[in-house]
Amino acid sequence: MMNETFIESAQKLTAPERREIMARLLAEQATEEFGTVWKSVRFDEKLRVIAYAAEQEKFVADLRELLRNSALIRIENQSDGTCEIYGKERTFYATLSEKRGFVALLSSWLPNEPPREIFLTETS
User: Fold this and answer.
1) Is 92 inside any structural domain?
2) Rounded distance, CA 73 to CA 85, Å?
3) How far is residue 6's CA from residue 22's CA, in Å, rounded to a whole number?
4) For residue 10, what are the contacts with CB-CB under 8 A and spacing of at least 6?
5) What digits encode the pLDDT tens for the residues 1-58?
6) Domain presence at residue 54
């Protein structure tokens, strides 16, 4: 009964509000079942953010501001630091190094648009 009420209430929320709730619920469940794959991060003024793709450069300032104010992230790969960073209006896919205060923005998408696969190529 409680789940039905929760689902009905959640359907009335905006897409960003639903994402925020789901991120928090999934974080608790994932921590219990798989260990910590979600965490909150906050960088200081020394944070450096770069974009690997030209079309992502317009989102660098938004991502930097989000990470300076605290953000919820889902760690995708512990070894290389790739993660999804959840903002109010956009999800960012990035590589981050907390120790160095460095974030490389790989891709991003709106809540109602699925992510697209990207390929990084080496230039000589």
Assistant:
1) yes
2) 4
3) 12
4) 18, 21
5) 344 454 556 666 676 666 666 666 665 555 555 555 777 888 999 999 999 889 999 9
6) yes
